[in-house]
Sequence to fold (228 residues):
Amino acid sequence: GAVVSQHPSWVICKSGTSVKIECRSLDFQATTMFWYRQFPKQSLMLMATSNEGSKATYEQGVEKDKFLINHASLTLSTLTVTSAHPEDSSFYICSAQPHYEQYFGPGTRLTVT
Amino acid sequence: AQSVTQLGSHVSVSEGALVLLRCNYSSSVPPYLFWYVQYPNQGLQLLLKYTSAATLVKGINGFEAEFKKSETSFHLTKPSAHMSDAAEYFCAVIPVTGGGNKLTFGTGTQLKVEL
Fold:
């Protein structure tokens, strides 16, 4: 149980385009989902907290207009990287929280060329 | 603010040896504590958690951790390392009160297992 999926697992896009990443809780409902970014050899950096039916709460320093988050249902949250640039290249991980513990997706490797 | 310290960014052990990965938290009120493992290019997998029940917590893959309030620690151990244990390990906390549900992660410890 407690499986979280992410799609796609990796994506390459050209600079200036937008990319959407999906995060789904497959066997449970999650009112709260989180989006993280991880640079090589580093810990996870929380980008935003996504609550079903309401606007996401972004961490300080994260551009909300660049990283659009939508939590349309209790099992789906999406992160759209708008007008992507090479510096947005990273490993993006989502998690879903049914109670107090978080279950993580497998991550999405984004490369912007 | 809550913080988590993982001593040792890299730990190397021989196969079959004891694994000890250290984690200390900073709050005066014990938080919920978690250990996660991350294999290359993958997400995080929950190894075990402490939620104010038993102080010795057993997790998956033979790992366990002991919560010690007097030392504000939650060190992760495994009696006998296996090659498949080589990975990045993260300690994380959620405050019991006042912090929402956000995880605060330590900086991680890379475990290397040698033959």
Notes: Chain A has a mean pLDDT of 93.
